Hints:
The protein is mainly α. Helices cover 68% and strands 0% of the residues. The two termini are 21 Å apart.
Amino acid sequence: MAVPLWTVACHGHSIRDSEDVLPEEPVRGTAPKWEGEFVAYFEARSPSLRSTAFVLCGDWHRAEDLLQATFLKLYQVWPRLVRRGELDGYARRVLVRVFLHENRRLWRVREHVSAEPPDIAAPGDPDVAQRLAVRAALAAVPPKQRAVLVLRYWNDLSVEGSADALGCSVGTVKSQTARGLATLRKRLGPQLDDLVRGGRKEHWA
């Protein structure tokens, strides 16, 4: 990243994505003792979280912004977060909620502009064509339904795990999953079964 996350945090910036995450702790001007541990976690987990962010938003630049916002939030609560455990689950929860917070405004704007995402011309490579088709189909799914689908079928979370990540009920996850899959089926047809049951996760990204 161009600007170290801890440098940004030390200058007092914050990104408030949800009231449901741990409150921020003040960060002093000198590097804390646990910074090395945080850097190691960042280096280990940022590739998978970046991929999840991309599947959520469909754009690598936005995915990088989501990743930075997520790790900034993690940095601001790191000591308590380590004591509580479940680092990966918390990181995923923050990422999804940052994505949803960002998209509340963007989705409303897009709904007024166009009800359907633009068609993407598919290149000759079948795998690339499939990825582009999936990306276009996901773009047609409202953000919360999309987040549910990504958690369920990209991150392989259970219904209960997805509900925990989203801060909603199991029933909400089930209904959002059904609606999201219905939208994908309209655009992908029989390819949807291969996407969610056939183990072809590479087509999501």
